[in-house]
Amino acid sequence: MSSKASITVLRPREEVERLWRDPHYRTEHIEGAGATVRFVQAPGDRGTEIHVELGQSARAGKLGQAVQKLRGSEPLSKAKDDLRRFKQFVETGEIPRSDAVPEGELLERKFKQRPAQPLTQDELQKVGA
Amino acid sequence: MPFPPRPIDATLHGVTDYTVGTTLLTAFPRLAGISGTESARQIRTAGAFHAGYSTLTDYPLGLVRLIPYKVHLGLDALGALALAATPFVTGQWREGTRRWFPHVALCLFELSSLAMSDPTGAGDFHGDIDAVRRANMEDPHRKIYDGQPAVHPGSVYATAATP
Amino acid sequence: MRATVWSGRNKVQVENVPDPKILNDRDAIVRITSTAICGSDLHLYDGYIPTMKKGDILGHEFMGEVVETGRGVQNLHVGDRVVVPFPIACGSCWSCKHELYSLCENSNPNWGMAEKFFGHATAGLFGYSRLTGGYAGGQAEYARVPYADIGPIKIEDDLADEQVLFLSDIFPTGYMGADMCDIKGGEVIAVFGAGPVGQFAIASAVMLGAERVIAIDRYDYRLQMARNRARATDIINFDENPDVVEQLKELTAGRGPDAVIDAVGMEATHGHGAMFAYDRTKQANRLETDRPFALRDAILACRPGGIVSVIGVYGGLMDKFPSGALMNKGLQLRAGQCHVQKYTKPLYDHIRDGHIDPSFVVTHRLPLGNAPDGYETFKHKQDDCMKVVLKP
């Protein structure tokens, strides 16, 4: 099974590398997984590519991976979530929140989404809006 | 929704007609473990007949709109009962459960599907058109037939703001 | 607040739900004054779009007054009158910077889910299932508008709601359909579908200088509106004669139209006979998600070397796509969800200058509470229904 994830961020390479190391933009699952991260300039005006390869320790056998996928803890999916949040944060200054997924994209949310209507007061507090 | 609930509209009923008719003709005998028997032939005939008169029914999936939808539903009911009765009429029911059970099961399936079918058939519309007309603050007829043309030909070039 | 929520196949209800709140700095809250039911809402209503959940608020064509803004919104103030585009676009990603707003890379928090369906995620949309982010829609009293510094357009003229409401979706969509046809003046354009989007595609083709615009539909009242109000030059009613390709050839003396706009999409009805029963049964059994009649005929009818412009909504896969005709006739197939933000300003100018009055499509103006009947009336084309506007 693949252990690579990648994304393109519309910013110059030096800026992306700097922000990657900035604690404000921390990508905790990628760091925790002992992954190799490479930054490559994307062709033309497309920005910077970030390539992540997860370390050996993060991979499980096929059965392990299926279980992890269902529990929402699979390392590769979490790494992908991390990359997307990094891109959204860097390019727009915020994480997109919808009524179905008010915390932004999370693997845990994939099977348990809210209905697409505004949150109640309690839910708002839990989400930290 | 009206009570008892009848969620199967004419189109969905048509879908079931063709799907079930085709299945009865093809896979059902093998699935029920009765291939090659008299029962299989009876059920195949029922399936073919059902699909056949469906194509001649006046509803959204009919090919030649001949038979009124309510008559079609009547044929469905009669056909179901006839199918259930067949093994008892021919006497084959004595040869074992398999010789009558599929017929009766199919009959019950058909009858319950009929109980959930909305017999109005024409367009399966379930809104309140009078309520709409009363509440409507606009006049549809006027908008369609009495209004002036709402657009000027070639006018895109009349402004500098052309994308 | 009250809102129209999805309650299962062929069912919507107006229910009480919480009021929306600011979640991000670039959000704004809009008090809705007018909102409309779209043809693409019918795909949700009919149960063809997956990932819907009971309680989802529908609606993506809305306008109103700004009542609250987040800290990051400088261009809008409380009290501003705005029309909100249906694609949610961040304005900062590569796609947005290239004006491909409905392909925004950052606005869909269900990127992973959407990627599985289409290969890539596309922009978040208001009120259109989890695939497009699961945002609450605008058939309600209030709505939360993300990236409010990018999307909403301020209305500063004394124009009625219905004259500008359609800048949110159907006018730019119809216009983009015509825009993709590369009209330079003098062309023959055929438009499949004379629903609201089709009406605007026809009107836009007329504005762009097409010489003949042919409207194709099965409902006479829609064809009459196309001719009387949208200025279609010819009409084809395929209920009277199902062979549309042949009729288009006749109208163009064998050449075929220079470009064809598909404003129909996945619930095409003009299949007839065996082909319709086949496709319809497959679709109901979910073996095929999209009904291909309009698109097939569009490709077969278009003149060799012409353009087929697809703005009708499709969701999945279709059978029997005429790939041979497409390739051998050298057609260009152009498609897309409308990049509304690209067109709002120029089209607003055209409305202001009196070149078009978009309110012509409105046949029904109902209180929000009548939404369920409004959906049924719109779906079954009863009472000469063309476009339903709801007033919260």
Topology readout:
The complex is a heterotrimer of chains A (129), B (163) and C (392).
Chain A: E1 4-9, H1 13-21, H2 28-32, E2 36-41, E3 48-53, H3 62-71, H4 75-92, H5 121-127
Antiparallel strand pairs in A: 1-3, 2-3
Chain B: H1 10-25, H2 28-31, H3 38-55, H4 69-90, H5 101-115, H6 129-135, H7 140-146
Helix pairs in contact in B: 1-3, 3-4, 4-5
Chain C: E1 2-6, E2 12-16, E3 28-37, H1 39-45, E4 61-69, E5 81-84, E6 87-88, H2 94-97, H3 111-118, E7 124-125, E8 142-145, E9 153-154, H4 161-164, H5 170-179, E10 188-192, H6 196-207, E11 212-217, H7 220-228, E12 234-237, H8 244-251, E13 259-262, H9 273-284, H10 293-301, E14 307-310, H11 323-328, E15 332-335, H12 340-352, E16 362-367, H13 371-379, E17 387-391
Parallel strand pairs in C: 10-11, 10-13, 11-12, 13-14, 14-15, 16-17
Antiparallel strand pairs in C: 1-2, 3-4, 3-8, 3-17, 4-5, 5-9, 6-7
Helix pairs in contact in C: 5-6, 5-12, 8-10
Can you walk through the features of this model?
The complex is a heterotrimer of chains A (129), B (163) and C (392). By secondary structure, chain A is an alpha+beta fold. In chain A, 38% of the residues lie in helices and 14% in strands. A three-stranded antiparallel beta sheet of chain A has the order 1-3-2, covered by helices on one side. By secondary structure, chain B is mainly alpha-helical. Chain B is elongated. The model of chain B has no long low-confidence stretch (mean pLDDT 83). Chain C has helices spanning 39-45, 94-97, 111-118, 161-164, 170-179, 196-207, 220-228, 244-251, 273-284, 293-301, 323-328, 340-352, 371-379; strands at residues 2-6, 12-16, 28-37, 61-69, 81-84, 87-88, 124-125, 142-145, 153-154, 188-192, 212-217, 234-237, 259-262, 307-310, 332-335, 362-367, 387-391. In chain C, helix 7 (220-228) links the parallel strand 11 (212-217) and strand 12 (234-237). The longest helix of chain C has 13 residues, at 340-352. Chains in contact: A-C, B-C.
